[in-house]
User: Fold this.
Amino acid sequence: MSKTILIVDDSFSLRHTLAIALRGVGYEVVEAADGLEGLALLDGRKINLIISDVNMPNLDGIGFVKKAKALASYRFTPVIMLTTETGEAKMAEGKAAGARAWVVKPFQPPALLDAVAKLIQP
Assistant:
């Protein structure tokens, strides 16, 4: 059974590139353009991993992760923050919200796929 990954990022091109890389290694992908759209997709369906940007309109990545982690079904869903943010304070905020990994854009797809493989339970 394939694993499902939710990508939450306001950049269509980034979501598209990421989706191609993830689908290429067998993952199912669901996409959202911001945190509010991402939350709407957390409707009880099985999501094995979330990849979220930090800076987005409507609901930013940190706020999205906090709200996602408050939902019982997604409390233990691993989250990778994929962002241009490199500041220690922002990284600490992401970790406090529940992010398990922090990947800085521009990213190398093999490195990201490696992080995904490590965080998704077999």
Notes: The first strand starts at residue 4 and ends at 8. The chain has one domain: 4-119.
